[in-house]
Amino acid sequence: MSNKRATQETTRDDDRTAWIALARCRDMAPRIFFPSDGPGVEVARRYCAECLVKTDCLEYALENQIHHGVWGGTSERERRRITKRRRDKRLAENPGGPR
Ligand code: SF4
């Protein structure tokens, strides 16, 4: 890979993850956001509710198909639903298009 291409890809990666610097959970224990039960999900959700980068966090998780943990204030099940809803919408708008 050329240095120029590597630099462009690094810049793109930096753009996609710049929101992490503003994440409310940045200095918190990761286990809070990977709960093992419903009450734990609610605890994580409360932190996410006041996070400035909630939308970026959710989109990152959806884009990267991250299945575990609470991201952008959503549980794993909620992200599956969002993904399915978006896929169904895309298919309805463009039946022959990519899934
Ligand atoms: S939305 Fe929640 S998991 Fe995402 S960065 Fe903010 S606090 Fe962290």
Structure description:
By secondary structure, the protein is mainly alpha-helical. It has one domain. 56% of the residues lie in helices and 0% in strands. It is globular. The two termini are 30 Å apart. Residues 23-25, 33, 47-48, 51, 53-54, 57, 70-73 line the site of iron/sulfur cluster (SF4).
End-to-end separation in angstroms reads 30 Å
Order of helices and strands: HHHH
Counting DSSP E segments of at least 2 residues, the number of strands comes to 0
Largest sheet: none
Can you tell me the number of structural domains? 1
Bound ligands, named by name, code or SMILES? iron/sulfur cluster
The helix/strand class is mainly alpha
| Annotation field: number of helices | 4
Anisotropy-based shape: globular
Radius of gyration: 16 Å
Question: How are the SSEs placed, and which strands pair?
Answer:
Blueprint: H1 3-17, H2 38-49, H3 54-63, H4 76-93
The structure holds iron/sulfur cluster.
Task: Name the features.
mainly alpha, 99 residues, binds iron/sulfur cluster, single chain, 4 helices
In short:
This protein has 99 residues and is an all-alpha fold. Helix content is 56%, strand content 0%. The protein has one domain (3-93).
